[in-house]
Amino acid sequence: MLRILLSQLVARERITTSRAKAKDIRPRVEKLITIAKKGTLASTRQLAAELPAGAARKLATVLGPRFKNRTGGYTRIIPLAPRPSDSSERAMIEFVP
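Given the sequence above, the corresponding structure tokens read:
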């Protein structure tokens, strides 16, 4: 499930999910971006081992170079209103521009 959330975040650059899931995937995606910033063949293979091919490719070619000069804090979590049906806490996680 976390792998799917990670790939969807990379593909869409913003997803809405529960607050707990957003807090869980944040450190994982930050580590993947740090790996993507290296830009080596080994880092690309490491990304491909963690994510589906399309998401790994986007991380290596688009997101890695975008955050090249940033030392950390690539994502942010924005709290949203609770879901009406069961009042579970929701949040939006997105990449910082």
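The mean pLDDT is 95. Try to locate this feature in the token string yourself.
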